[in-house]
Specification:
Blueprint (H helix, E strand, L loop, with lengths): L9 E6 L20 H6 L4 E4 L1 H4 L4 H9 L6 E5 L2 H6 L6 H8 L10 E7 L8 H10 L7 E4 L8 H7 L5 E2 L1 E3 L14 E6 L12 H14 L4 E6 L6 H13 L1
Parallel strand pairs: 1-2, 1-9, 2-3, 3-4, 4-5, 5-6, 7-8, 8-9
Helix pairs in contact: 6-7, 8-9
Length: 248
């Protein structure tokens, strides 16, 4: 792999940062909760904001996150579930507008891709997706779509996403959900939920090296964002650091 020239930037982080299981393990014992983002952002260079999925945040939240992290840190922001799960992409023009009006764009230079995670109960709806894609802000804002229903795992999906430069999330979910591998945009967005047990299992050295090889190859042509979501027993930040070390 030594002859691969990296053109894109590889960023590696975790899905969220506030987990009780990380305290006294990844986070030093006694570290105040309000300092956890600062601690993580000095060891990794990106993180997914998960709270934006459960409810609209305020501009003050994004301002605080911006101010508490290094200059070169990047946040991916998870789209509001009202759009993806409650309304299931149907008639969401106002909701998309409210989401981006809640302070997301105030992250400015620290704004990474917006993650739109579809529910596992939503089957293939190409017309609905096409209408949704037309609502999304244009570049430099980047967007990534994560599919969960098997009916979405088809070539026509890439044909819809590519003209909008929307990344189809490269996912690993212990076989629970579709696991696409082919890039559809000028960047790659990967979510590693666990290869043995969803949200739980740690990655072996062999598994990390396998992913590192893929990311090296993809980064020859595009930026790569990687987020470990095996958070439930605290493996995510350690796996992220281990992968970063392999790719440094």
């Amino acid at each position: 792999m030594g002859n691969i020239v990296t053109v894109g930037e590889i960023r590696i982080g975790t899905s969220g940062w506030r987990y009780a299981e990380w305290r006294g393990d990844f986070y030093p014992r006694g570290l105040q909760q309000r300092l956890e983002l600062q601690f993580l952002s000095r060891r990794l260079d990106t993180v997914e904001i998960n709270g934006s999925f459960y409810g609209l945040r305020k501009p003050a939240d994004y301002k605080s996150w911006f101010e508490r992290t290094p200059e070169d840190f990047v946040f991916a922001v998870k789209g509001h579930r009202e759009i993806t799960h409650t309304k299931r992409l149907r008639d969401v023009g106002k909701d998309v507008e409210e989401f981006f009006g809640s302070g997301v764009l105030d992250l400015g230079s620290k704004l990474g891709p917006i993650l739109w995670q579809l529910p596992p109960t939503l089957p293939w709806r190409p017309e609905r997706l096409a209408a949704f894609l037309e609502l999304l802000p244009d570049p430099p804002v980047r967007h990534a779509l994560e599919i969960r229903h098997p009916s979405w795992d088809r070539p026509e999906l890439a044909e819809l996403l590519a003209p909008h430069d929307v990344a189809l999330v490269v996912a690993e979910s212990a076989g629970r959900f579709p696991e696409p591998r082919e890039p559809t945009a000028d960047f790659v967005y990967a979510r590693l939920h666990g290869d043995q047990e969803l949200y739980v299992s740690a990655y072996s050295d062999l598994a990390l090296e396998r992913w590192a090889s893929r990311f090296r190859r993809w980064s020859a042509e595009r930026d790569v964002y990687v987020y470990f979501d095996n958070t439930m027993r605290g493996a995510a930040p350690f796996d992220a650091l281990a992968l970063a070390e392999r790719l440094s």
